[in-house]
Amino acid sequence: MSIKKSSNTYRALLLNSSYNELPEPIGFQNIPEEAHPYFQEILLSRPCHLWTTVDLQSAVILSSITLKLNQAIEVLGNEVIVTDHNGAQKPHPAIAVVSNLTALRLSAASKLGFNTNTKRTTVTGATHSSVSSASVVKSSADNVKDFNTRLAAKKAKSQ
Fold it and tell me: Helices H, strands E: what count in the chain?
């Protein structure tokens, strides 16, 4: 019998899962330490009884790709266009790396059942009912400006 991810039973399984009982996947010791938080978040996205050995190995790959993608985005920064030695403008070389890593990440995530069309119920969603029923809102230019204003105010308040 399949349990709906939005059900209270599924949420209870998430909260009561003992992830320490899962075997360490092959290759986990080879990923960088910085990828471990991504791996933990991936694990917490479903109850431990649903994880197979193959899924755990896929989670290792996904966490490693996510780390590399974030590093590539950092390298890219705000410099989308660069000027070569002849003075001609061209796209930053890191754009291709970000594009390829994004495609790899989507592929690895889909193997684990994650996609952009469904909502994941996580531990946060299990403990905060408003999170599990949240909907995606596309931002407009006004919302972005408003967000940046609120973010700046929050930073100023914390200092």
Answer: 7, 2
Q: Give alpha helix (H) positions in 44-136.
A: 53-76, 94-111, 123-127, 129-132
Any bridge partners for residue 83, and if so which? 89
Question: Is residue 139 within 8 Å of residue 147, measured between CB atoms?
Answer: yes
Per the confidence metrics, is the pTM higher than 0.85?
Answer: no
Question: Which amino acid makes up residue 64?
Answer: S
Does the CA dihedral 139-144-146-148 come out positive or negative?
Answer: positive
pLDDT digits (tens, 9 = 90+) for 8-52: 665 665 565 677 777 888 888 999 999 999 998 998 888 777 888
Amino acid type, 81: I
Six-digit token string for 92: 């930053």
Please report, for residues 11, 17, 74, 131, the alpha-carbon distance to residue 121 in angstroms, rounded to integers and kept in the order given: 7, 14, 29, 9
Here the tokens at position 17 are 């899962």
Give yes or no for residue 69 having a pLDDT over 50.
Answer: yes
Task: Return the C-alpha torsion angle 42, 109, 27, 49, nearest 10.
Answer: 50
